[in-house]
Amino acid sequence: MNWSELRSGNGMDTYMEDLAVLVEVPCLCGAISFGQVWRQIRGERFSELKDISQPTLVVNGHHDVMIPTVNSYTLSQYIPRAQLIIYPDSGHGVLFQFPELFVAHGRMFLDGA
């Protein structure tokens, strides 16, 4: 396929499919590889979280299916200076579902931190 064929639209779908494979496959493989390394438990489970010394605001929606709410509870238990806020009747987009409340909580946290 040459440039004039691409510009005319002939074969563009095939070209884009090939390009997607060239870009997505290495990225996906890298992400999977990183995920496998990151998931390996090194030492006591969650022990690295206790080293976070900054005040940390942990926010989650009660019905978050992307990051289960139990993970937020775990973070808040293991991070020494963590504050936890769970928003009822909300999912992963809690800051969009309750924007005013989210900003108010963020300001309170930053003012008190």
What can you tell me about this protein's structure?
This protein is mostly helical. The chain has two domains: 3-39; 47-112, no CATH class. Helices cover 55% and strands 11% of the residues. The protein has five helices and two strands. It has helices spanning 3-8, 12-39, 69-78, 94-97, 99-112, and strands at residues 56-61, 82-87. It has a two-stranded parallel ribbon. It is flat and about 40 Å long. The termini are far apart.
Give a short synopsis of this structure.
This protein is mainly α and 113 residues long. It is built from 5 helices and 2 strands, in the order H-H-E-H-E-H-H.
**What is the strand content?**
5-15%
SSE order: HHEHEHH
Number of domains: 2
Low-confidence stretches: 19-26
Output the strand order for the largest sheet.
Answer: 1-2
Mean pLDDT over all positions: 77
Percent of residues in helices: 40-55%
Q: Helix- and strand-based class? A: mainly alpha
Number of helices: 5
The major sheet is characterized as: 2 strands, parallel
Coarse shape: flat
C-alpha-based Rg, rounded: 22 Å
- Give the CA-CA distance, first to last residue: 59 Å
Summary tags:
11% strand, single chain, flat, 113 residues, two-stranded parallel ribbon, 5 helices, mainly alpha
